[in-house]
Design brief:
- The complex is a heterodimer.
- Chain A is an alpha/beta fold.
- In chain A, helix 6 links the parallel strand 2 and strand 3.
- In chain A, helix 2 runs parallel beside helix 4 and helix 5 packs across helix 6.
- Helix content of chain B is 48%, strand content 10%.
- Chain B contains four helices and three strands.
- Chain B is elongated and about 65 Å long.
- Classes of the chains: A alpha/beta, B mainly alpha.
- The interface between A and B is medium-sized, with 13 and 11 residues.
Chain lengths: 287, 105
């Protein structure tokens, strides 16, 4: 802290204070926040970072719990599905644990408490087919976050291919990008998502301001390691598929989605030294 | 609620300043992080001891009263021998001077 203290100018302190009022979770991440501000070379860089952080959705346990209750309420009261014929499935496709399984596990309690003690949770995509054969033809895919929607579109295609009979399909997410959700809804599927986000830069700024913000973010990304082993920053530039998400779950509740601006989670600087990042993304081999 | 050292220090500094102090001035004056300063200001504001006007902090009437009370306490604690009348004070012992200690069983 003392090392950074001398770099904090009057305006920086003012900005940090305004962020603390708006985003109290940053109080616990002061070193990372100050490091991030020190990475900014110009006042415009700093303004952009402050602006984006001001709009950030960092969900604590209480908010997550509220959203899980809302999802459970939707499933029981509004989805039109019945407990005996429904399976609630994670979208997990490979053999690695992921956040859709985590949310599936979290939703068990609210569903149980709200009146579905016998619903069928399914922790892998492949098992949905098996459960469909057993009469669970109403399927709800659940996940923490939807970015561009590409993964979900892939699953829908796969499911149509794998299930021969009739099935009803709906989706539940804790949070997601509005444009990604729209893609799923355009396919004719109902989506329940209590936190719908717009793109952090392109849907917030206009005209000259937008041009400047895009250019400033590009300049900031140039300060990050362009490659870490097999991972190219270019692929995650402005978030995977340029999703421009400003979202993360507190602590161990989730894994920061790759849709989030890498400036907030990319683990190395241009010279390959490690960063003390504000939020963390686990991706095997990316460190 | 009891104030911590930083909060007491800030209150005393604000008490001494006639027109309040810039937050940045306080930040430079103390060896504290923005977080510590922010939390200290939050506590003092919630207790209505100070008020902030964007970048400047000023002490309130309640703050002045609190500072005076605390100051009196600090003053009283600062030297316990200050209150002893002169007639009860013995001669001052010089360095290396012999003396007979009074042993109380």
């Amino acid at each position: 802290m003392n090392k950074l203290k001398k770099y904090i100018k009057k305006d920086d302190l003012k900005n940090v204070f305004s962020l603390y009022s708006k985003q109290p979770w940053l109080l616990e991440k002061e070193d990372s926040l100050l490091e991030l501000l020190m990475l900014c070379e110009t006042p415009e860089h700093k303004n952009l970072v402050i602006n984006l952080l001001g709009e950030f959705h960092f969900l604590d346990n209480k908010v997550l719990s509220n959203f899980l209750n809302l999802i459970a309420d939707y499933i029981i009261s509004d989805s039109g599905f019945s407990e005996d014929t429904t399976q609630i499935a994670a979208i997990t496709y490979d053999d690695e644990a992921d956040s859709s399984q985590k949310i599936l596990d979290y939703i068990k309690m609210p569903l149980y408490k709200q009146g579905w003690p016998n619903f069928k949770p399914v922790n892998h995509y492949s098992s949905t087919i098996k459960n469909h054969k057993k009469g669970r033809h109403q399927i709800i895919f659940i996940d923490e976050f939807i970015g561009s929607g590409q993964t979900i579109i892939g699953r829908v295609k796969q499911l149509k291919n794998d299930i021969k009979g009739k099935f009803d399909l709906k989706f539940c997410f804790i949070a997601g990008m509005e444009y990604g959700i729209q893609k799923i809804e355009d396919l004719g599927y109902e989506v329940y998502c209590p936190l719908r986000l717009t793109r952090g830069i392109t849907e917030k700024f206009k005209e000259k301001e937008l041009e400047n913000a895009l250019s400033n973010m590009k300049q900031l990304e140039e300060k990050l390691a362009q490659n870490i082993d097999d991972f190219d920053l270019e692929k995650y530039s402005f978030g995977y598929n340029q999703a421009e998400a400003l979202y993360s779950l507190e602590g161990c509740n989730g894994n920061t989605p790759n849709s989030v601006f890498p400036l907030f989670w990319w683990p190395r600087l241009l010279n390959q030294t490690s960063r003390n990042t504000l939020i963390t993304r686990f991706e095997r081999g990316l460190k | 609620m009891r104030l911590n050292n930083l909060q007491k220090l800030m209150l005393n500094d604000l008490f001494k300043s006639t027109e309040g102090l810039y937050i940045y001035t306080l930040y430079n004056r103390y060896n504290s992080s923005p977080k510590e300063l922010f939390l200290a200001i939050e506590v003092l504001t919630k207790m209505s001891l100070v008020k902030s006007d964007d970048e400047r902090l000023t002490i309130t009437t309640s703050g002045i009263e609190y500072a005076i009370k605390t100051y009196e306490v600090i003053k009283a604690k600062s030297n316990k021998l200050d209150g002893i009348q002169e007639k009860f004070s013995g001669p001052k012992i010089e360095i290396n001077q012999f003396y007979i200690p009074k042993i109380i069983n």
